Amino acid sequence: YYVVLTFDDGIKEYSLYASSILYKKDILATLFLITSLQKHPYLDKQLVDKHDIIKIHDMGHEIASHSATHRDLTILGSNDLLYELKNSKDFLEEIIKDEVKGFAYPYGKYTNRVISYVKKFYKYARTIHLRSIKTCDINDPFNNRYKLCGISPKLFLYILLRDWTINVNKNHIYIIVFHEEVKLLNLLLNLLGTFSVRFLQLKDLVKYIDHKDL
């Protein structure tokens, strides 16, 4: 298995908890952060601040953007769309003094127009498998670097246990998307300990996909 652990939103308690656990296990993840809010837009949870972002980056985790204010990009005009994309990237790059390459669509939603704007600022973008709005094809997750297909931890655990039972070919690649399910992280890591797993950050997975050398 090749596994990419990603964490959306940048909720302070979850982000610091997960990044610290993974750092101790020598596993690097990708965190997609909301950058222009202090609290999550619909959860009563504090978001990471500049000091938290530096701390997470210094652990070696990839810092990426989840927009400035987590609005649905598909309904925004050009000025608001540019703000959500460029402001977030500029803000993060100023903090970490490094290039921010990745973006995650709020609510997993995008259009061809949104993608055309995302391409101006980012090297890749990740969505999430949602049956309700057909955001990506779980059976062809890497057919477009601006539609990279992530799945929830619960769906991944189902797939993992299914594969474990029937002993299928283990040469699979999965992008896992955590929100509030961070409590499942230790369970997932313990189960993955029984498999031969290579953990990648999303920026590295994109390189592998481009060169077809997984």
Write up what this structure looks like:
The protein is α/β, with parallel strands linked by helices. 39% of the residues lie in helices and 17% in strands. The protein has 7 helices and 8 strands. Strands 1, 2, 3, 4, 5, 6, 7 and 8 form an 8-stranded parallel beta sheet that branches. β2, α2 and β3 form a beta-alpha-beta unit. α3 runs parallel beside α4. The longest helix is centred in the middle third of the chain and has 19 residues. The protein starts with a strand and ends with a helix. The relative contact order is 0.18. The mean pLDDT is 91.
Approximate shape: globular
- Using the CA coordinates, give the radius of gyration: 16 Å
Q: Would you identify the regions where 5 or more consecutive residues have pLDDT less than 50?
A: none
How many angstroms does the end-to-end distance come to? 10 Å
Count the E strands.
8
Q: Would you tell me the overall average pLDDT? A: 91
Give a quick set of tags describing it.
214 residues, alpha/beta, 8-stranded parallel sheet, 7 helices, globular
Structure, briefly:
The protein has 214 residues and is α/β, with parallel strands linked by helices. The chain has helices at residues 12-24, 50-58, 78-96, 112-121, 153-166, 185-192, 202-211, and strands spanning 2-9, 30-33, 62-65, 102-104, 124-128, 148-151, 173-178, 198-200. The longest helix has 19 residues, at 78-96.
